[in-house]
Amino acid sequence: MTRPPTDPPGGTPRQVVHPPDRPTPLPPGGTNAVGWTLGLIGDEWNLLILRHAMLGVRRYGEWRQELPISHAVLTRRLHVLTEMGMFERVEYQRKAKRFEYVLTRRGRDLWPVLVAIWGWEAEWVQARPERLPRMAHRTCGRAFLPVLSCAACEKPARAADVTGGFGPSGTWSRSVPAATTRRRSASAEGAGMFPETMALIGNRWSAALLGAAFQGAQRFRDFEQRLGAPPTIISDRLRVFCELGVFTQVPGEDRADWQSYRFTEKGRAFYPVVMTAIDWGQRWFLADEGPALVYTHRDCGQDLRTRLICDQCGGLLQGTEVLVGNSV
């Protein structure tokens, strides 16, 4: 029987091996599904390895050929991703004991998050070390951008169309990964990584501040009170978000000298990344108390379950329906 986890990915080594084809039970009072998900997708190398795995890479040497990654980093990340139930380690050569890493059901189920990240970066991020691959929808044959929709009514689900917030296992302290803040490596930045996505979710305080903003926080003191972070960290993260064009500063409604921070169109467009990640995490990490976040789609009144549709033909996107081609 699998023991409940104690630390999210990126922290100290763990003994638990997450079941690849069924949800991981979470202990009461510990890191919730959001924290575990951010610990996984907030690591740039994890996303790069999973991105190439979705394109068919399975063997250690293939990742070494595709990525400017050291032996130590690749070995560690493959170990963590296997522990997390994203890969199954399968022997393909007995004599020399060689293994390949096959995506599990849990690992394959992450594809909407990767597609949502790709869609946002393709539309909103101009400067990058490497051009993104072109993606087309097999059904209509056209290049597309993913649109977040509600599984119940199949209508678009923008941030303004959704209401909700913390559920029974949801608090700010339980929703951030316990791992220390990661530094972006120069090698990963040159590997075609999604640079601005990492600026938003690759730092524990950035991810928390982003979540607070989507829950309605706008003023400095709102972020400070909700996150419990030092003022210098809040100031730095707000500065970065403004520099990226995700936030804009406007005079406060109560006092003009108290600045408010509002989402720009670019910032609101990141919503599908946030919601597909939350949806994935709450399918695969279950707390006895209940979900970390609960959202309702205003149009139909149902709990929001995310789907991605093609902006060209309106058809439902599936992992097997996304074709990778030339760079865009």
Automatic annotation (TrEMBL):
<keyword id="KW-0805">Transcription regulation</keyword>
<dbReference type="InterPro" id="IPR036390">
    <property type="entry name" value="WH_DNA-bd_sf"/>
</dbReference>
<keyword id="KW-0804">Transcription</keyword>
<protein>
    <submittedName>
        <fullName>Helix-turn-helix domain-containing protein</fullName>
    </submittedName>
</protein>
<dbReference type="InterPro" id="IPR002577">
    <property type="entry name" value="HTH_HxlR"/>
</dbReference>
<feature type="compositionally biased region" description="Pro residues">
    <location>
        <begin position="1"/>
        <end position="11"/>
    </location>
</feature>
<dbReference type="Pfam" id="PF01638">
    <property type="entry name" value="HxlR"/>
</dbReference>
<dbReference type="InterPro" id="IPR036388">
    <property type="entry name" value="WH-like_DNA-bd_sf"/>
</dbReference>
<keyword id="KW-0238">DNA-binding</keyword>
<feature type="region of interest" description="Disordered">
    <location>
        <begin position="1"/>
        <end position="29"/>
    </location>
</feature>
<feature type="domain" description="HTH hxlR-type">
    <location>
        <begin position="26"/>
        <end position="129"/>
    </location>
</feature>
<feature type="domain" description="HTH hxlR-type">
    <location>
        <begin position="191"/>
        <end position="289"/>
    </location>
</feature>
